[in-house]
């Protein structure tokens, strides 16, 4: 960092601290009515907004926005750039908007990147208090090469090759240019003094950081040339420069914008009925709000201008989304793989499965089985990462490995215990695993434990699996509990609909004699042993 930049940063840090005021950097290209409403709502609380409207979008839409907001002193318009996804033009447009905001709003302390799909989910007072109390930059920035931020597609190709064409609009030219560079080994070096970082483009930076970035842009033409032909630079440019210019202790490695993605990598869209869920997230803004969700936009805009400060943060949004969207899917994650199709646990072996949603109940029965019989048992080895397992050469090291190589794992456990009989516990959601084991040539029997689920248990279950937290409101729980209860009933019915052979059942509501008959059939033990197990102390107690 230059002496001039350091001096400027130190001067600003020692200056009298003013209350936070935010200049929003808004990149947009459509929905003029939504943009106008968004700008009016956010500036009503005393904050500012710099608008960049894509130069390739409708001129008529831009005129509508400019006419409606041109007289608002808290609004400024940036010089327009034609933008394309994955191109340098998106960073260029952002820089144009930042420059306009820095010049127009000298009282702005923070600069917050948003899109036309973003809306506040906290009040301005709450946001300002958070920024006042934490003198940091909020930007997600992970090491480009060592992190797993990029899930699919190009990685180092984004950087070491030059990208002159847009992959979406000029696909043939894009890939032809890439293949030619690979053929002629025309790679380039990354600027030596930069550690390339990657992360979400929805950041919130302090004024001194933004000014340092702008000065860096003017002084380091080599870095600018590098990023101009980098693929998807909006995920690396600011993330890299902020880490380069600002001490790590002054960076919060996260975004203040709540966003979620579907299984297919598409942003999840929020609608009118998501208001309570959004307010419970530990973020200041949310993306992406549907343009058609007029009621939600009105309520969130009014919220930002309100004086509300008492927000109950539960942060269960992502886990709740994964749980709810997973219901009703019929696809099988654990379909047989070609290398396992001809394997077997062994014709002479017996695999005894205890299926129970209440893990503590099944574990009590397993402990009693181990104490009363000589049958080895392992509880929830496909559900709990810390299940006690012997050293099996690494196959036991993670749930992912255990599930992927489940038959090999079971054969190794039979060998380890030197037994042809083995008891395991499975959660009732593991229908695919059950089906796979019942398809084996070994003898497989299952004992289903049917428990009652009162509201207190369901609340505890929701908290254990991350669907709720200590701060989750009663109203949210009231809506969630019927879904969880129905999900458990669905799992029970799915097991019975599968029609697995040699399946017995014990019930919390049944007598000890009835349960003993089922246990005797399951374990192939005497009536006395079965009665002892059926009368296990506190078996069904929560």
Model description:
With 542 residues, the protein is α/β, with parallel strands linked by helices. It has helices at residues 3-14, 32-43, 59-69, 88-104, 124-133, 157-160, 171-183, 207-219, 221-228, 237-245, 275-279, 294-305, 317-326, 359-372, 399-404, 406-417, 431-438, 455-464, 474-498, 512-523, 527-534, and strands at residues 22-28, 48-53, 75-77, 110-115, 119-120, 137-138, 142-143, 197-198, 204-206, 251-252, 257-258, 285-286, 350-355, 377-378, 421-426, 443-450, 503-507. The strands form 5 sheets. Strands 3-2-1-4-9 form a 5-stranded mixed β-sheet, with helices on both faces. The protein has a 5-stranded parallel β-sheet with strand order 14-15-13-16-17, sandwiched between helices. The protein has a 3-stranded mixed β-sheet with strand order 5-12-11. Strand 1, helix 2 (32-43) and strand 2 form a beta-alpha-beta unit. 36% of the residues are buried.
